């Protein structure tokens, strides 16, 4: 479009024709046109805008000019890929985390589940003071759990392990964690192989040795040897007060308490002796609290108390008569009379005789209470608790004699004088004739 006050334009070149607007008769150079076209194809996008403007100039000036933007050819915008990459990264990370969690859960489940079931039980030993971690290791070593590490951690979380009891347990592979813990907490230990034996009241050391050899498989000779070695006696405090008297046939006579015992199989002779000695201390502790004061008031030692009790044990069968016979012994000792107790002679003979002969009463021994006054050197048997009580607390009587009634009641006739005693002997003989 020409302006009156401006220079005259030669016109714009159209990229769609070979002529220049305003000068149609002027020939156009084809090569120039082609070059311009090629330049427009390869130039920067601004060239495209310029071409668009050239094309717009070919429109007659009478028409209103069109918006440059509206006439510009649209260029497609390439979409961004970043959101999709982030999504895939998140999904991959999530998958890795889930895989790790699943792996950990499987590890925990597999490590804490019961082991393969087996019908063969397993024995384990839990020592006193053993920590829960060590217990777990013992269980793993014996195939009762899969992982000691996980099991001990589970025990800690559950607050278990502090109540486990020592002992030998029999557990079966395949048991659950709760079953194992319950058994250890309750102390359901195995019953160890044991030996049972009963020592009757009034038995001597030699009789005890024979009984043990018969019922418990104990070596009799070794038992008697151990009974003569004070260094092996650790079961009773009272063995330390034993008199050093060479006249004692067996130093432990009367100290091995008669009772029914249960001990581990394989216990030594010394073990058995000490167990019986400890039972004596246990029984003496059941006496009244002032029993030692009573003993001192009477001027007796524990050794003498057991000696009197052993005499009562071998002379009396009926419990009610034990304190009475103990009073006869006490009265005779006070008068310094020979005790003349048949049981002391029987002890020297090493076997029970139904009837003692005159020759038996003349055996030269400190244990012969027919020839010697006072108590024998030591006990002649293992007394019962009732005999010990009777020796400690005898009846208050004036009796100096007693004789068996021989009527089958195992009771006695008591007398204060010798004359009365003779009459009782006659009565006893009449009972035999009947």
From TrEMBL:
Q: Which family does it belong to?
A: Belongs to the transglycosylase MltG family.
Q: What class of enzyme is it?
A: lyase
Q: How does it sit in the membrane?
A: Single-pass membrane protein
Enzyme Commission no: 4.2.2.29
Residue ranges annotated as transmembrane are 85-109
Transmembrane helix: present as a keyword of the record? yes
Source species, please? Cohnella silvisoli
Q: Where is the composition biased (Polar residues)?
A: 30-44
Region annotation (Disordered) maps to 1-71
Which chain positions carry the site (Important for catalytic activity)?
315
Name assigned to this protein: Endolytic murein transglycosylase
Return the Low complexity bias intervals: 45-67
